[in-house]
Specification:
Elements (H helix, E strand, L loop, with lengths): L1 H27 L2 H10 L2 H16 L2 H24 L5 H29 L5 H30 L1 H19 L18 H13 L2 H31 L3 H25 L6 H19 L6 H33 L5 H27 L4 H33 L7
Helix pairs in contact: 1-2, 1-6, 1-7, 2-5, 3-5, 3-8, 3-13, 4-5, 4-7, 5-13, 6-7, 6-10, 6-12, 9-10, 9-12, 9-13, 9-14, 10-12, 11-12, 11-14
């Protein structure tokens, strides 16, 4: 039920963002305004994510999931009606995106917090892999369907479809049975701000958890870096850079989907720490290897396609591994607060990487940056792995039993 709801809503959301971006660009002629709309979709969720976890852990998570999907559906219904009567302007679009982003700040961290409540611990990696597959497939399918849907039916029906997708998602989520968390008798005596403080105390008191959060930033940072590398490399090695960039993005998408499917079949339970840090190590190796690629256009394009495909595989393997490690490690009563922070750290790392690498690309050759990035990642992954193992074993010796969830 959870995956079904995610699938329909994410395809609808992808259609919505494609249609909205094109419509804003077409009607205003301003790429800056289009960028502002995209930023409005991200920034509120990024900021509120540092605080929303306390709400997720205090109140019924099922109601949060259903309620936020219902609200998003109703917001989009209202938007579609206003669009139909030509009452929409740029500032109304910004307001809509801000409201949708606020809802996402509560919805997105709730999903990984709920999965350990409805799935056995041994099946967490497989469940996360299936969830990642839905994300990846819906993104690609939504992008493909979006262009066709807009040309055939127009913008209004895209907005209607997205509204219905969220309402349908809420309907599926009504049938999810989520066992209640262990009741905290002190919970009723505390305030939201107190819960928030406890959440950050929980995070900063756990060194192994801090290492995992650091790896979250590393993973998302290099996701952002590849988004800058791909267009620069495509333009540098090919006379038809746009087409080559399309191939690169397809290779990355296929890599993420194939790895998600593979991990949903091959259970990595108990090996998540090795696959997490090993994936980061392999990304470093891929960057170093890519810095030495040479040959004619066909050969070098093929080499980069393989590298980007493998990069996509590694990113998904690392992402699923750290999510599963967090779900296994943390007390689920704090899961909302932890995953809300994870989401905000990840969402800030990607645009941060785009800014940093965008600036560096103007001063240095991309092959030099690939080499430097790879050389930095390899020791970083090894040192982080050693520190995590040492810290984890020390903590396990002090507290051999995990709190009941």
């Amino acid at each position: 039920m959870l995956l079904s709801g995610q699938f329909v809503s994410q395809i609808g959301d992808k259609l919505h963002m494609i249609a909205l971006s094109f419509w804003v660009l077409k009607t205003t002629g301003s790429s800056a305004k289009m960028g502002a709309v995209l930023a409005a979709s991200l920034i509120p969720s990024l900021v509120i994510g540092f605080f929303s976890g306390a709400v997720i852990d205090r109140y019924n998570r099922k109601y949060i999931i259903i309620g936020t999907d219902l609200l998003r559906g109703l917001i989009l219904v209202l938007f579609a009606v206003l669009f139909y009567f030509e009452l929409i302007n740029f500032y109304m679009i910004l307001t809509m995106q801000l409201l949708l982003s606020v809802n996402a700040a509560f919805f997105d961290p709730t999903i990984p917090s709920v999965i350990p409540q409805i799935v056995d611990e041994k099946d967490l990696a497989s469940a996360n892999s299936k969830h990642q597959f839905v994300n990846g497939f819906s993104t690609i399918a939504g992008a493909f369907i979006g262009a066709i849907f807009i040309s055939m039916f127009g913008y209004f029906w895209v907005f209607i479809v997205n509204a219905l997708s969220f309402l349908l998602s809420a309907f599926f989520e009504c049938f999810i049975k989520i066992p209640p968390l262990q009741k905290d008798t002190k919970k009723e005596e505390t305030e939201i701000l107190s819960d928030l403080k406890q959440g950050y105390q929980y995070i900063f008191s756990d060194k192994a958890l801090l290492i995992l959060l650091f790896m979250v930033m590393v993973i998302h940072f290099f996701v952002g870096s590849i988004e800058i590398f791909m267009p620069v490399i495509a333009n540098a090695i090919s006379a038809e850079g746009t087409r080559t960039l399309g191939f690169f993005q397809a290779a990355f998408g296929v890599g993420t989907i194939i790895m998600a499917v593979a991990l949903s079949i091959k259970n990595i339970s108990g090996k998540e720490n090795f696959t997490l840090f090993g994936s980061i190590f392999l990304i470093g190796m891929l960057y170093i290897a890519a810095s030495f690629f040479a040959g004619d256009e066909a050969i070098i394009t093929g080499l980069y396609l393989i590298m980007i495909f493998l990069f996509g595989c590694c990113i998904i393997c690392a992402g699923i591994s750290f999510k599963t490690l967090l779900q296994k490690k943390i007390d689920n009563r704090f899961a909302g607060r932890v995953f809300a922070v994870v989401g905000s750290l990840g969402n800030s790392s990607i645009p941060g990487a785009m800014i940093v690498y965008g600036f560096l690309m103007e001063k240095y050759d991309f092959q030099e940056l690939l080499l430097i990035s790879g050389v930095a990642l390899i020791p970083l992954s090894i040192i982080s792995f050693i520190l995590y193992k040492e810290t984890y074993h020390i903590q396990a010796a002090k507290a051999p039993s995990k709190p009941l969830t």
